[in-house]
Design brief:
single chain, 223 residues, mainly alpha, 12 helices, binds iron/sulfur cluster
């Protein structure tokens, strides 16, 4: 019972710490002008840094805007050219064009916004080419307003180190275990806050346990 109480507090303690440090204000969100645009952004951002993402995003915009209608008509070569600074540009260009065709054909932007069942909306997103759990969940929480916690590599690491999840858990097992500690309405913010905590404190190589607010209760603490 004692241990459970400890684990119950650990994620909220981390979140309170991030908030106190003002690293991520509660109001912070990932901006979603359209589902299609945010999907394009996440595809561009795979294995590259944010400066490149911004550059490529602006280059892509110059084709006439980032909408399914524009991208589906654009030459694949032109999309590739715009994506070049981001790496893997051939694969990414093909994927973005495929998505544009599907979004246009199925009127998906509108359809997704009309689904009021999270599981159904998630299924639709996961059926899209190249869209995995994390990206689907980012769309669900930041574009569609569902209460879900997208799990990225930092968040997964924190869940495992704090003993909330174990390394054999699936994406959804980790997500559900973490979500059980985070109140509804806070999960979009918690996604951003935990990533920041992973970057600044619980880093993959050298966690800064001595500066960590849960060092006395974390099973992986080095201090
Ligand atoms: S004590 Fe160390 S391992 Fe545990 S959460 Fe804090 S930084 Fe990570």
């Amino acid at each position: 019972v004692e241990q459970k109480a400890t684990r119950d507090n650990i994620i909220m303690e981390i979140l309170k710490f991030v908030e106190k440090k003002s690293w991520v204000p509660r109001s912070k969100v990932i901006e979603c002008r359209s589902i299609f645009e945010l999907l394009v952004l996440t595809i561009i951002s795979q294995i590259t840094n944010w400066r490149n993402v911004r550059t490529v995003f602006n280059r892509l915009k110059q084709l006439g805007g980032i909408s399914p209608e524009v991208i589906k008509e654009a030459e694949l070569k032109a999309i590739e050219e715009a994506l070049k600074p981001a790496g893997l540009y051939r694969v990414k260009a093909k994927r973005i064009k495929e998505l544009a065709v599907i979004f246009h054909k199925q009127d998906l932007e509108r359809k997704l916004r009309e689904i009021n069942d999270m599981v159904k909306a998630r299924e639709v997103l996961l059926s899209l080419p190249g869209i995995g759990f994390k990206t689907a969940d980012i769309i669900l929480v930041f574009c569609l307003g569902f209460d879900i916690l997208p799990i990225d590599t930092h968040i997964r690491r924190i869940a495992i180190r704090t003993g909330i999840a174990n390394s054999k858990d699936s994406y959804d097992e980790i997500r559900l275990k973490l979500e059980s500690h985070i109140p509804l309405g806070l999960r979009g913010w918690a996604h951003l806050a935990l990533i920041e905590f992973g970057r600044r404190i619980c880093g993959s190589r050298k966690p800064r346990c001595s500066s960590c607010p849960v060092k006395s209760i974390c099973p992986s603490s080095k201090v």
